[in-house]
User: Fold this.
Amino acid sequence: MLKAYIVDDEPLARDELKYLLIQSKRVKILGESDCLEDAVVDISRLKPDLVFLDIELAEDNGLQLAKHLLTLDPIPAIVFATAYDEYALQAFELNALDYLLKPFDENRIQKTLEKIQQMQRIGEEENTIHPSLKKDHTGKIAVLVDERIILLTCDDILYLESFEGKSIIKMMEHTYKFSEALVVLEKKLNRGQFIRVHRSFIVNMDHIIEIEPWFNSTYHLIMKDRSKVPVSRTYVKKLKQLLGF
Assistant:
């Protein structure tokens, strides 16, 4: 059963969402809050699988909380649940798993929960049902592409990107696009080999051939296929520590 946490400053909206989630018989509600301060404390302590997050809160912005959630370990899946559709692009740039509009639709919520559970099953198969598929033993990860589970060799991955609500894996010969969130993929990767350099990019350090200084203390990484990956200021310090420049 999925463990969920709800952040919304509207009591009626929280109650409606709780009711629909409980009715699904797939979700256990760990807690709820109406502000970012309480949510940060609770989510860090309770470690839910899934956070339903409103964007326009009374005194806060849910997008800021989403950025914080990306720093947690483990990172919960994020589903924005809001009355505003204009934030969809920003939400998916933050690797949101889904974007639900109010008033909530029961069938739409069911589809969201099915997507999350399908992703969980893939992870369980890698780590429990089929030990031979563990990345630590084979150097491969499993991703869901067009209803097929594709095994990719980690060493062949140049970088991973989040773009317009989709995740992209770029390899030398192929590019794969699918709906699994970048934060979910990040958990499957070897942290000694892959590093996040931007909220929308994770790179394989073995395929970096050049570091190009850019504007405002940022950089571009030149990859083995000559493509360029941006490094945002947030991640520059960590990259310098790892690569020694």
